[in-house]
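Complex record, three chains
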Amino acid sequence: MTTEMKQVFSRPDSLKDAATHFCPGCQHGTIHRLVAEAMDYFGIKDQTIGVASVGCSVFLYGYFDIDVIEAPHGRAPAVATGAKRVHPGRPVFTYQGDGDLAAIGTAEIIHTANRGELLTVIFANNTTYGMTGGQMAPTSLPGQKTSTTPVGRNVATDGYPIKMAELLSGLDGTAYSVRVAVDTPKHVMQAGKAIRKAFQTQLDGKGFAFVEVLSTCPTNWGMSPVAANQRVADEMIPYFPLGVYKDATA
Amino acid sequence: MTKRLFVKGNEAIAMGALEAGCRYYFGYPITPQSDIPEYISRELPKLGGQFIQAESEIASINMLLGASSCGARAMTSSSSPGISLKQEGISYMAGSECPGVIVNVCRSGPGLGGIDASQADYFQAVKGGGHGGYHIIVLAPDSVQEMYDLVMLAFDMSDRYRVPAMILADAVIGQMKEGLTQHRYVAPDDLAPKDWALIGEGKAGEQKVVKSLYLGDGELEAHNNKLHAKYAVMQEKEVRFEAVELDDAELVVTAYGSTARIAKTAVRLAREQGLKVGLLRPITLFPFPNAAYQKYASNGQKVLCFELNNGQMVDDVRLAIPRSEVAFYGRAPGAGSLPTPEEFLAQICKHYEA
Amino acid sequence: MANKIIIDEMLCKGCALCTVACPQSLITMATELNKHGFFPAVISAENLERCSGCTLCALVCPDVAIKVFRGVKVD
C-alpha cells in the first residue's frame, strides 16, 4: 500500500495562468475563480462570451480564456443583449460592479432582466467605487465614510443603499436572483453553487439570472484584507441578507 | 421588385436596410423617425430577424455594439436628442472598429427643440460627435430613393472600413412620400470576411476581444493613427457628390439634403433668368468632397452655401476652398416652414451681382 | 506527509485570508518580502504534517495561489 498525492484543488481551466492586478484581499479574484469553475463545470469555455464592464473588473479578458466584448460604463447588459440575440447558442455573461450596475446602469439591468434575456449577470457589490478611488456607491451603507461622503453617508441627502437582488427579483423576466458572499469557505462554496445555477438557468433557457456577490475593497475601505473580510460579515450581510430572492427555474 | 412604390422616407430607410441584409435593429421612438422602428417591428420578424424596442437610445446603441461585435449587420435610428445620447456608444464603436448604421432623422434643437427639420446636427455628425477624435461615415440623402439606396451603401462602407456609418436625413425627407424603385441588394465583392468578430460556433484558438481600451505605452497612439489612416483612404476612394450645371457656373450654390432640393429649384429658376449658376451637392459629408469644391469652385467662382442652421457645413466649404469667396444663407433651426425656392433665388441674385 | 498545500509565492499578495480560513491555523505570514513587495503566506514543514487537505485556504484565496493535494492510499 502506497500513498499517492492527488491534487484536489487547482486553478480552473477557464482562468488564465496570470497574476491579477487586484489589490491584496480584493475578492474579485475569488469571484473570477468561481465563474471560471462554473464554465469548466459545464464545459462552455470556448462557447462563452464575457461582456466586460468599467471598474476594477475591466480587464476580464486578461483573466478568462474566453471571447470578450468591452462595454461602456453601465451598458454591459445591453451589449450582452445584442450579442445574445445574434448568437443565442453561446452563453453570455456580464460581470459588473456597484457603480456600473446600480448607478449608471440601472436602466439597462432592469430592462434586460425585464425582457427575460437569457443572460447571466455577476454583480460584485463592495459598497464603494474601487477603480476611481473609493467614492460613494449606490450600495454604500448609511454612515459609511467614502471619499465623497467624508462625514459618512447621510440618508437624508444621499439616499439609502440599493438592494439589487431584491429589486430584480420583482420582475417577471427574472428567473433567478440570489445574493451570496465569499467571506468564509462555506459562503464561497454556496456562492460557487449559486453561480453555477445562474449559468444553468441560461443554459436551460429559463430566463434572466442574477448573482449579487458581497465582496471587499480593503484599499478603499482603509482596512487590512482580514479586517475588510470581517466587515462583510459584521456590517454588510446584516444590511444585504444572503439568500435566494427568486427561483423560477423549476 | 420593379413596381414603383409610393413610400415615406423613413420607411424607405427601413426597406433598404432589410434588403441589405440587416437582421438586427434596436431603437427607441422619437419624432420624427418612429416610423422606422414601427416598420421594422412588423417586417423584420418575418425575415427571422431580431427587433428590440430598447429602454433608451443609450441602450439601443449598446445593443448595436454587442450585435456588431458578433459580426451581424445591425442598425439603430433616432433623431437629434437621441443621437446626442448615443455619442458615447458611437465612440466605443469607432474605437472598437465595430461597423453598424446609425440613422439620424434630424429635428431642430438645441435641447428638446422642435420636431421640424433642421440641419443643425452637421457638426455633431461629421466632426466626431462623441469623445476621442474619431470620425464616422456620414451620408446625406435628399430623396426617398436616396434614403433607400444610401442605407445600403452605408452598410457596405461601414463593413469595408469597420467604421460606423450615419445616415444624416431630416424630418422633411423622413416624413415625405415619394416614388421609390426597389432593387435587389448585391454585396460588393471586396468585403472581407469578419474574422475579427465573435462567431456563432465559439472560440477556436485565440480569444477574440472587442475593445477600445489601450493602456500600454504608445498603443492607443498607434491605434488612433490606424483609425485616421482609414479615414484618409475613405477620403480618397469614397467621396460622393452631385454636380448640377457646374461646368460654366459663375456662382456655385452648395447645399445637402432637403435644402439641396430647394436649392436645385432655385438654381433652375436662376438659369431661366440667364444666370450661370450651378449646384454642388455633397452626398458624403464625411468624407467631405474637398476635391469637388477645388475643381468647381476655386477658380474665381462665387460660392453660396445654404443650410437649415446658423452655419455649419459652410465652415468645411471654406476650409476646402480657402481662396474663394464663400457666402452663407441659413435658416436657424425651428424655422418651421422651409425656405422657398424664391427666397433662395433672391439670395442667388444678390450674390451674383455683388 | 499525508496531505499538502503549495502556496505560489509569486501569486500570493499576502492578504492573509488563508490564515483565518485554516481551521488549524497552520498558515503564517513570511517575515521576508517576496519580489512583488508582499509578505506571502507560508506553511512550515512542521505544520504541513498536520494539514488535512481540507482546501478551506484555497477556497478563500483570491489569487488562486494555493494548490492542495491529498494523500490517497493505493494498492
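Note: Residues 182 and 189 of chain A are 8 Å apart (CA to CA).
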